[in-house]
């Protein structure tokens, strides 16, 4: 990508898209295309086709998606499947029709089988059953990966797919029911502290292991891969290390300086027992994450405070 190339960031107001936008600005790219969902409904094929025909972007970062935590994924199963399929089908096909030089599709680590061996290698895709609670979202993302590979195979399109691990950072979703575990815990501990609550209740046993990547590190990886990776097949993006939900909660408790205790509601689901990415492919390409978890959470908490005050 050259500094004056026209680059479309789909989903630029989300956590991932906004991080990619910040990275491109920081690297001196100036010809950046963005549209809010009110300006361009990516679920609408006619609108997407009209946008691509008019603007003719040369590069596309497809970071737009309908996302959420366990409750949202399990409750709005049809919405998560339909809307994500529509978004990616429209953007990928319009990119092909309008000669986009390169497209990056962003997926999720939930594409891997629930009980896949750890750490998760790229070739474990489609080797077992998915986690039932977020199966519709995972199926949509798997379809996106296969679509990029199919357009590469049939039409010679340089479309690549990346699978980030669990993300957190600026512009995260802190909704009490529809957010992911790390931002949900930030909100819960903050509210417990401000309300002088005696304890914070954590869903499940606290034993599941999770890997967390700061969204700005993901944006750095995406920028790097857009410049250096041109092959079929997905690339995992992560840190290569994980932490239990219990230890994560203790870390957030420490950062927020909440003095109360932790309680675990074992009647609630744990989700997948472990999700650690194998990042050997990414490492071999020459990239690694730099933000330590404690530092990243402290930055995310400051971002949260700026939004609630």
Can you tell me the overall shape? globular
Structural class assignment: alpha/beta
Sketch the major β-sheet.
6 strands, parallel
Low-confidence stretches: none
H/E element order: EHEHEHHEHEEHEEEHEEHEEHH
Return Rg in Å.
19 Å
User: So how many helices?
Assistant: 10
Tell me the strand percentage band. 15-25%
Task: Report the count of strand segments.
Answer: 13
In helices, the fraction of residues equals: 40-55%
Q: End-to-end distance, in Å?
A: 39 Å
Mean pLDDT: 95
Show the helix and strand layout.
Layout (H helix, E strand, L loop, with lengths): L6 E4 L4 H12 L5 E2 L11 H11 L3 E4 L7 H6 L1 H21 L4 E5 L28 H21 L3 E6 L1 E3 L12 H14 L4 E5 L5 E2 L1 E3 H14 L5 E4 L5 E2 H12 L4 E5 L8 E2 L4 H5 L8 H16 L1
Parallel strand pairs: 1-2, 1-3, 3-4, 4-5, 5-10, 6-9, 7-12, 8-13
Antiparallel strand pairs: 8-11
Helix pairs in contact: 1-7, 2-4, 4-5, 6-8, 8-10
Would you kindly provide a written description of the structure presented here, covering whatever features stand out?
- This protein has helices at residues 15-26, 45-55, 70-75, 77-97, 135-155, 181-194, 215-228, 245-256, 280-284, 293-308; strands spanning 7-10, 32-33, 59-62, 102-106, 159-164, 166-168, 199-203, 209-210, 212-214, 234-237, 243-244, 261-265, 274-275.
- It is α/β, with parallel strands linked by helices and 309 residues long.
- 43% of the residues lie in helices and 15% in strands.
- The protein has 10 helices and 13 strands.
- The protein starts with 6 loop residues before the first strand and ends with a helix.
- It has a 6-stranded parallel β-sheet, sandwiched between helices. A 3-stranded mixed β-sheet has the order 11-8-13.
- It is globular.
């Amino acid at each position: 990508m050259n500094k004056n190339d026209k680059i479309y960031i789909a989903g630029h107001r989300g956590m991932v898209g906004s991080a990619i936008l910040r990275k491109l600005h920081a690297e001196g790219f100036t010809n950046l295309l963005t549209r809010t969902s009110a300006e361009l409904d990516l679920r609408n094929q006619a609108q997407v086709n009209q946008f691509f025909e008019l603007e003719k972007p040369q590069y596309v970062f497809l970071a737009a998606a309908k996302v959420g935590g366990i409750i949202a994924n399990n409750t709005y199963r049809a919405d998560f499947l339909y809307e994500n399929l529509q978004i990616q089908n429209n953007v990928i096909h319009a990119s092909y029709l309008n000669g986009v030089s390169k497209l990056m599709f962003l997926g999720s680590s939930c594409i891997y089988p629930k009980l896949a061996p750890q750490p998760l290698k790229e070739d474990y895709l489609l080797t077992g059953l998915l986690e039932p609670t977020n199966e519709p979202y995972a199926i949509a993302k798997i379809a996106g990966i296969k679509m990029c590979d199919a357009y590469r195979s049939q039409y010679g399109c340089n479309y690549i797919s990346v699978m980030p691990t669990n993300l957190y950072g600026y512009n995260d979703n802190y909704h009490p029911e529809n957010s992911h575990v790390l931002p949900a815990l930030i909100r819960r501990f903050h509210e417990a502290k401000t309300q002088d609550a005696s304890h914070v209740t954590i869903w499940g046993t606290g034993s599941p292991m999770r890997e967390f990547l700061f969204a700005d590190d993901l944006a750095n990886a995406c920028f790097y891969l857009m410049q250096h990776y041109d092959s079929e097949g997905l690339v995992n993006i992560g840190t290569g290390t994980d932490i239990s939900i219990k230890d994560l909660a203790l870390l957030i408790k420490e950062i927020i300086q909440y003095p109360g205790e932790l309680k675990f509601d074992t009647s609630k689901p744990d989700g997948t027992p472990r999700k650690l990415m194998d990042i050997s492919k990414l490492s071999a390409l020459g990239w690694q994450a730099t933000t330590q978890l404690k530092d990243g959470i402290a930055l995310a908490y400051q971002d949260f405070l700026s939004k609630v005050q």
